[in-house]
Design goal:
The complex is a heterodimer of chains A (about 400) and B (about 120). Chain A is mainly alpha-helical and about 400 residues long. Chain A folds into 3 domains: about 5-80, no CATH class; about 135-230, no CATH class; about 260-390, no CATH class. Helix content of chain A is about 65%, strand content about 5%. Chain A is built from 14 helices and 4 strands. A two-stranded antiparallel sheet of chain A has the order 1-2. Chain A has a two-stranded antiparallel ribbon with strand order 3-4. In chain A, a hairpin with a 2-residue loop joins strand 3 (about 300) and strand 4. In chain A, helix 6 (about 165-175) packs across helix 10 (about 260-295) and helix 12 crosses helix 13 (about 370-375). Helix content of chain B is about 60%, strand content about 15%. Chain B contains 5 helices and 2 strands, in the order H-H-H-H-E-E-H. With about 120 residues, chain B is of the alpha+beta class. In chain B, a hairpin with a 2-residue loop joins strand 1 (about 70-80) and strand 2 (about 80-90). Chain B has a two-stranded antiparallel ribbon with strand order 1-2. In chain B, helix 2 (about 15-35) packs across helix 5 (about 90-115). Chain B is globular, with a radius of gyration of 16 Å. The chains are: A mainly alpha (about 400), B alpha+beta (about 120). The interface of A and B includes residues 35, 82, 218 and 225 of A.
């Protein structure tokens, strides 16, 4: 009788004999140490785990559900030593399985892992969020309890007579969401490494014992990734265009290659409200211009020449509006569907847009006598437009 | 697994070890250029040749080649297991393959031409 250990390799569960488990553990630890300098370490390790899993699967059948120690040894021999240099050319690195004893299944508390190489970033974390995840992300970033952050936020909102709520909304748009495991790790400043991956996978395994359920989850996840990837590609195309016209993109957080993406996400977040405000301004200008054309046959002191019919002037105005507004809408869409393609954010965009239109109309009505008189005469004007519409060609 | 060549070839096999390893990238580019493949395909194609290799070598090599923009992959569903990464050449990879092939031909001509 030999003890058996259940492990999760890249999301699938396997039962290994104790000896095989130890050998595999040592192999993966060595692999991890050798890949320490590889920026794609997590990915390569996931690939290796996948390959090991497939090889182990070969030894299993409906009547045999445990991989023996000998079989694990054979799998490891077939895998071959992990080439840390990735050059394919002569690499003779010292064998050194670091720290063979790991605290299995225990999540490392944030901040206890060495800061070296851990790339800490401010993200919004949606899991366990009250509103959007801003406080959650800040709590993870500063490694303090989320309740403290929330209390501080509420206190600030009261102290600043609500102005802090605006700051919160800005942060909601500006701070990117943590989607991937790497980003979650970066949000907490954890090292994203294979041991953690395995530990986390082991924990998750408990929740996904049913293979069918797991596969469904995996498929969903992948669909999401693919969707995200498409969006990223579209966005990076935009970026390249911007790059050509605007020069270098802003580099706010140092020269890490991810920063371009991170900056792009932030810029996308900024574009939404700006594009919304500009779009609203333009729309109000269009409505005012059409109104003034219909009522006075003049726009901004330019009188409609008698040989141009009213409808043609309105069409010209709308075409002009489209020409000016379409890049804005484009930017708006880019910001909206760029890094976060979520329905609720689109809703936010339209809410912001509507709010801006209302605010602008109200301001104009307050401070601009012409607008006030125009709005007061709006019912008559509308009547005028409708009667003009029924008899095209006849000036109102 | 590395095939064990006949004993008279063993020393040559050992001497050319670094060269074989150095040629691996070139061969992977050739394989990927011919067809969209995943890692097990590559191992199968190299297996039984002098260049037989293992996952432990191939995955780090592919990750570096991808970082250098020579290859890229896409996930594809498979019938008998989880989805797989299928690799393909990028335009840069194709150019690089052309350069390596030219260089390799030049080396061959040199070797052929020497000692005649």
């Amino acid at each position: 009788m030999r003890p058996v250990i259940t492990i999760s390799l890249n999301g699938n569960s396997y039962q290994l004999e104790q000896g095989g488990y130890d050998a595999l553990q040592a192999y993966l630890a060595t692999a991890e140490a050798r890949l320490a300098d590889n920026p794609d370490k997590a990915e390569v390790l996931a690939d290796l785990e996948q390959a090991i899993a497939e090889k182990c699967g070969r030894f299993l059948n409906p009547h045999k559900n445990v991989v023996t120690a000998e079989e694990v040894e054979q799998v490891i021999r077939e895998m071959g030593p992990v080439d840390g240099s990735g050059s394919g050319a002569g690499s003779s690195q010292a064998d050194g399985p670091p720290g063979a004893e790991h605290p299995h299944g225990t999540e490392q508390p944030a901040g206890t892992k060495g800061p070296a190489g851990a790339h800490k970033r401010l993200y919004q974390i949606r899991e366990g969020a009250m509103l959007s995840g801003v406080c959650n992300g800040l709590a993870a970033y500063f490694n303090i309890d989320v309740t403290i952050v929330r209390v501080i936020f509420v206190a600030l909102a009261i102290l600043t007579w609500g102005a802090w709520i605006l700051a919160y909304i800005v942060m909601m748009f500006v701070i990117p969401y943590a989607h991937t495991s790497e980003q979650h790790a970066a949000a907490h400043g954890w090292q994203f490494n294979a041991q953690e991956l395995i530990d986390r996978a082991k924990e998750h395994y408990a929740q996904f014992k049913d293979g069918a359920q797991w596969r469904r989850r995996w498929r969903e996840q992948r669909r999401f990734w693919r969707f995200q990837q498409r969006q990223w590609r579209a966005q990076s195309r935009h970026w390249r265009q911007w790059h050509r016209t605007l020069g270098d993109p802003p580099q706010w957080w140092g020269p890490h290659p991810d920063d371009a993406n991170y900056a792009a996400q932030i810029l996308g977040g900024l574009l939404i409200p700006i594009a919304a405000v500009l779009g609203a301004l333009l729309f109000v200008a269009l409505v005012l211009a059409i109104g003034s054309l219909v009522t006075t046959h003049a726009v901004l002191g330019w009188t409609l020449p008698p040989h141009i019919p009213l409808w043609a002037a309105i069409v010209i105005l709308i075409v002009l509006y489209q020409a000016v507004a379409s890049p804005l809408h484009f930017a708006h869409r880019m910001g909206r569907y760029g890094p976060y393609g979520y329905g609720w954010l689109a809703l936010w965009g339209s809410l912001a847009w509507t709010g801006c239109v209302i605010a602008l109309v109200w301001l104009a009505w307050q401070h601009w006598p012409e607008v006030q008189s125009f709005l007061e005469h709006l019912p008559q004007s509308l009547h005028g437009i409708s009667s003009w519409w029924r008899q095209p060609g006849t000036p109102v | 697994m590395t095939p064990s060549p006949p004993s008279d070839l063993a020393s040559a096999n050992e001497k050319f070890g670094p060269i074989r390893k150095g040629l691996l990238e070139f061969l992977i580019l050739k394989i990927v250029d011919a067809d969209k493949v995943y890692v097990a395909d590559m191992l199968r194609r190299l297996g039984g040749t002098e260049f037989a290799t293992q996952e432990g070598t191939l995955y780090p090599l592919l990750s570096r080649m991808r970082r250098e923009g020579l290859v890229d992959y896409e996930w594809k569903e498979s019938n008998e297991g989880p989805p797989r990464k299928y690799y393909e050449l990028t335009p840069k990879g194709r150019r690089h393959l052309g350069e390596l092939a030219d260089y390799w031909n030049a080396i061959n001509r040199t070797i052929e031409g020497l000692g005649r």
